[in-house]
Design goal:
Layout (H helix, E strand, L loop, with lengths): L11 H9 L5 H5 L5 E3 L15 E12 L8 E6 L4 E6 L4 H6 L5 E7 L1 E3 L2 E5 L2 E4 L12 E3 L8 H15 L17 H9 L7 H6 L3 H25 L13 H7 L7 H15 L5 E6 L5 H14 L3 E5 L3 H15 L6 E4 L5 H13 L4 E4 L13 E7 L6 H8 L9 E6 L5 H7 L4 E5 L9 E7 L3 H13 L3 E5 L7 H18 L5 E4 L5 H12 L5 E4 L12 E6 L7 H8 L9 E7 L5 H12 L3 H12 L1 H5 L1 H4 L9 H4 L3 H14 L1 H11 L4 H4 L2
Parallel strand pairs: 4-7, 10-15, 10-16, 11-13, 11-14, 12-13, 14-15, 17-22, 18-20, 18-21, 19-20, 21-22
Antiparallel strand pairs: 1-9, 2-3, 2-5, 3-4, 5-8, 6-7
Helix pairs in contact: 5-7, 7-24, 7-25, 8-10, 9-10, 19-20, 24-25
Length: about 675
């Protein structure tokens, strides 16, 4: 391996541009893989085109015109019996007009876009041909991720040089028994320069064995990183707790219901973890309303009984407050002291909260991310419970670890109501053991979901007004096309004004992301206390607030939201014994994908099925909340496509850590040069 400066044609300017792409040396160049290929050797029928890709097409000129507009242009209609494409030219000269005559057969190459007339190409390369003009014999041309100022030919040239001079020195880091028989150098050669007869479909899908060889190596490196992080966290000792004899019994005896089988099973797994003196790292997933809070309460009993402190952290004030009220109701009768800490507390209240946490008279502390601020010190922190993990990054989770006693790490219990498909859990939370609460408590009525086109909005409004007048409570969720808080807020304000004007007798509230936290809080509180019958909101209400009386939910433009988000929103109703109802309003015409999504919502209430489908339809970033994962920083692997390799990658990562530790380090260096920072936070 050498620095990129060693290559011909790479001066300081080119090196600075390569740096933007995280390319510093020749190995980085070799692993800078094509995002696509151009195929100039196969004619593609016009009904098989995807926007944003380049194709070789052939067809007859069926129309030529000069559309009116600010810029003079020429539009040429090309037809191949399977479909049509419009060619647009803004620089019109004789050479082009001569070739684009009615009835001419043209062979063209260019990128497909969407224009005023459907699929269009701007200034494609074109030649006039006869029926039997032979096809060009060319290799597939690789198209690389690039940056402004760095052209494709330049990148190709640098990669070509790196392949010729340095690929022989690349170490094989996967032991041969775990590889699919492709050598690393061979795989890279193939991917950068596929032969003339290469299977284009395989390459486009990422399923060619040469690609799979690299994908697998990258997944193994990721799993090594997660396992290393876990081992590092678990080197530090944690307090060992015997299962609670008194508190847990008292807590469960004070409830009006029994724990479900799933709750008991997960509580047992947690109690088992807490007995060991290494930090528990467990993720509890439960569908909306599956009773995760009670499981967290029972887990807290084990630590509290041995006089250790417990901290529970939630992503929003309103959710933290809900937990505070729940835990106060449960634990104060047992003689325990519950403290509250939020970012809003100022002056005396804040100082008093910090004091009771510091001197240990607060047994259980509930709060928002104010808990990880430096000046918050715990007397004896034994267990940290984190709710709605996907709202917090890994760094934040680890920051709480440092709040333990000197030389001790608290146990970590992470909870989420966003069911995460197993494959995704393995790759995002591979450092955590996973438990699933897959049974709903009795007394819940299933939610009936219907899909209604937007043009029947009026009927829906009338029905809601009638139901609210009868004492029911409803949510009306406004979502917009653009992902913009400001626009969403405006849409919600407009809907609020409209409904208030039409139904003056109803008490209506409004919540959106642009409001201050305490304003939102106050409205939600009114809704909770049944002072409001209808709540107009943006998607800010998705996480966590229980209003058992609310039994109707309307979501406008539902096709715009992902399945998991729809499922979370829907879970805000159906909390009580009343029959609940969710109406998804959508706009015609629906895409295939939109139809499929709404069908799934109608047919199932099972969060895990929904999450699996969501992963198929939308990819992982969306599901986990992109903030935390980015695109999980994968270069070649794609989770939704390569999930079948994860189990194996996990196994191989364990074997390499055990038998080939040097290779493990080198794999991290190759694929995740940034990763080790997590391990030592």
């Amino acid at each position: 391996m050498a620095a990129v400066h060693q290559l011909q044609g790479v001066g300081n300017a080119a090196a600075a541009l390569l740096e933007k792409l995280n390319i510093f040396n020749t190995d980085d160049l070799l692993f800078h893989l094509p995002r696509d290929y151009e195929d100039r050797s196969t004619i593609i029928p016009m009904n098989q085109l995807s926007v944003g890709r380049s194709y070789l097409l052939e067809g007859i000129v069926k129309g030529v015109d000069f559309p009116p507009g600010k810029r003079k242009s020429m539009a040429v209609l090309l037809d191949d019996d399977c479909g049509k494409v419009t060619l647009r030219f803004y620089h019109i000269y004789k050479g082009i007009t001569d070739r684009c005559k009615l009835g001419h057969r043209l062979r063209i190459f260019g990128e497909v876009r969407v224009g005023a007339r459907g699929l269009e190409m701007y200034h494609p390369e074109l030649q006039v041909i006869t029926e039997d003009t032979p096809l060009p014999q060319t290799q597939l041309t690789a198209i690389y991720p690039a940056t402004e100022g760095l052209t494709q030919p330049k990148i190709r040239d640098y990669i070509q040089q790196a392949l010729a001079q340095y690929s022989d020195h690349l170490p094989e880091l996967l032991p041969a028994k775990f590889s699919n028989g492709y050598a690393l150098k061979q795989a890279l050669e193939y991917i950068h320069h596929p032969p003339v007869n290469a299977n284009m479909l395989q390459l486009a899908q990422g399923s060619h064995p040469a690609q799979q060889r690299l994908i697998f190596e990258e997944l193994v490196a990721h799993q090594i990183s997660l396992l290393t992080r876990r081992a590092f966290i678990q080197q530090v000792e944690a307090p060992s707790f015997a299962p609670s004899k008194t508190y847990a019994k008292q807590l469960l005896a004070s409830l009006a219901f029994e724990m479900t089988g799933a709750q008991k099973r997960v509580s047992k797994e947690i109690a088992q973890d807490l007995k060991a003196n290494k930090p528990m790292l467990r993720l509890v997933q439960g569908d909306v309303g599956a009773g995760k809070t009670l499981v967290a309460g029972v887990a807290a009993c084990h630590a509290l009984e041995e006089s250790w402190q417990v901290a529970l952290m939630a992503p929003t004030e309103i959710l933290a407050e809900q937990h505070y009220l729940n835990f106060k109701r449960w634990f104060e009768p047992l003689g325990l002291n519950i403290a509250w800490l939020s970012g809003k507390q100022k002056g005396k209240a804040r100082a008093a909260a910090e004091q009771v946490i510091r001197d240990g008279s607060a047994h259980l502390v509930i709060g928002t991310h104010a808990l990880f601020q430096e000046n918050v010190e715990f007397a004896k922190l034994g267990l940290v419970i984190i709710d709605e993990q996907h709202r917090f990054g890994v760094d934040q989770r680890l920051a709480l670890r440092n709040k333990g006693l000197d030389g001790m790490s608290p146990h970590q219990l992470v909870m989420t109501a966003t069911p995460i498909p197993r494959t995704l859990a393995m790759s995002a939370y591979g450092d955590l053991d996973t438990s699933v609460i897959d049974e709903l408590p009795p007394g819940r009525t299933p939610i009936q979901t219907v899909t209604i086109p937007l043009d029947r909005r009026e009927q829906v409004l009338q029905r809601i007004a009638t139901n609210c007048a009868e004492g029911k409570q409803a949510y009306w969720v406004c979502t917009l096309v653009e992902q913009s808080e400001t626009l969403d807020a405006q849409a919600a304000e407009a809907t609020f004004a409209e409904i208030r004007e039409r139904f003056p007798a109803l008490n209506i509230g409004l919540v959106h992301g642009k409001m201050k936290a305490d304003e939102k809080q106050a409205v939600m509180q009114q809704f909770k206390n049944n002072e409001l019958q209808l709540l107009i909101a943006t998607t800010v209400i998705e996480v966590g607030v229980d209003v058992p009386n609310a039994s109707i939910m309307v979501i406008e433009n539902a096709e715009r939201l992902g399945l998991s988000q729809l499922h979370q929103l829907r879970g805000r109703v159906g909390r009580g014994a009343k029959a609940s109802f969710c109406a998804l309003l959508y706009k015609h015409p629906l895409s295939q994908n939109g139809q499929e999504r709404l069908r799934i919502m109608r047919e199932t209430n099972d969060g895990f099925m929904i999450a699996e489908k969501d992963l198929e339809l939308r990819g992982p970033g969306e599901l986990l909340g992109t903030k935390q994962t980015g695109d999980m920083n994968f270069r070649v692997a794609k989770l939704e496509r390569d999930d079948h390799l994860l189990n194996q990658a996990h196994y191989v990562a364990q074997q390499i850590l055990k038998d080939y530790p040097d290779q493990a380090e080198a794999l991290l260096q190759r694929w995740l040069p940034e990763a080790p920072r997590y391990a030592y936070v």
